[in-house]
Amino acid sequence: MARTAVPRRLGDRLRWLAAELVERRAESVAAWTLVFDVPGWPGHLPGQHVDVRLTAEDGYSTQRSYSLASAPDGGRVELTVQRVEDGEVSPYLTDDLAVGDAVEIRGPVGGWFVWHPEQTEPVLLVGGGSGLVPLMAMVRGRAAADSRAPFRLLYSVRAPEDRFYAAELDRGAPGLDTTYVYTRSAPDGWTRPVGRLHARDLAEWGWPADFEPTCYVCGPTGFVETAAGLLVALGHSPDRIRTERFGPSGG
């Protein structure tokens, strides 16, 4: 996945910052939101990500990239990490990292897959699984900016227990419409048949192409390619479709 640093002054370099874990919240059976206090955090835009570095006592270090889940409203950074069973980093972050422990964070990174508070056009967010994380930063960023830009979120997830931010999304917000697509099992009484995302889902719960929305699509590579192709087939301009994809990275 190609990523570029957010524009800064010429000559500026991203640097590693100490980040202390101050809060943990369970999001699903396999994912946790980790809230870090990061002195010197320069701020970020919804949709950006950070690099997280872990260093062992013997000097061995490793790092992974994680999307920011928080609105850009202070010196705290929220990451939602899904546990990869055979991973090297995510099991430590989800199972072992305790409040008061520290990691290193570098960022923010990314200048294209972002939402700016001054945007006024309709926005369509299409997320698959943990691909919801940067989209949720956009939802929260919209609320923090008191934006009136209309948002629609289409969230594809295997089962109800796999949803991220369920209580927050269920509460809703003015100008935000959320629709779930369940691919494995659905709640009792759910009218949409269980199955993968289809063109009819985007046509029914997304924005018409002639509204010229900006579309943000994030998730596994196959999901992103399918959703973006369906949007183009429905008449959306490729120039208005922004994608972010993820795949195996060693966890």
Automatic annotation (TrEMBL):
State the UniProt keywords alphabetically: 2Fe-2S, Iron, Iron-sulfur, Metal-binding
Q: Which cofactor does it need?
A: FAD
Q: Name one GO molecular function term.
A: 2 iron, 2 sulfur cluster binding
Family matches, as Gene3D superfamilies: Nucleotide-binding domain of ferredoxin-NADP reductase (FNR) module (3.40.50.80), Translation factors (2.40.30.10)
Pfam families of this UniProt entry?
Answer: FAD_binding_6, NAD_binding_1
The lineage's top-level taxon is Bacteria
Q: Which InterPro entries match?
A: Cbr1-like_FAD-bd_dom, FAD-bd_FR_type, Flavoprot_Pyr_Nucl_cyt_Rdtase, FNR_nucleotide-bd, MRET, OxRdtase_FAD/NAD-bd, Riboflavin_synthase-like_b-brl
Query: Which PROSITE patterns is this protein grouped with?
Result: FAD_FR (PS51384)
Positions of the FAD-binding FR-type domain:
14-115
The protein's matches in PANTHER family, at most eight in alphabetical order, are given as:
NADH OXIDOREDUCTASE HCR, PROTEIN RFBI
User: What name goes with this protein?
Assistant: Ferredoxin-NADP reductase
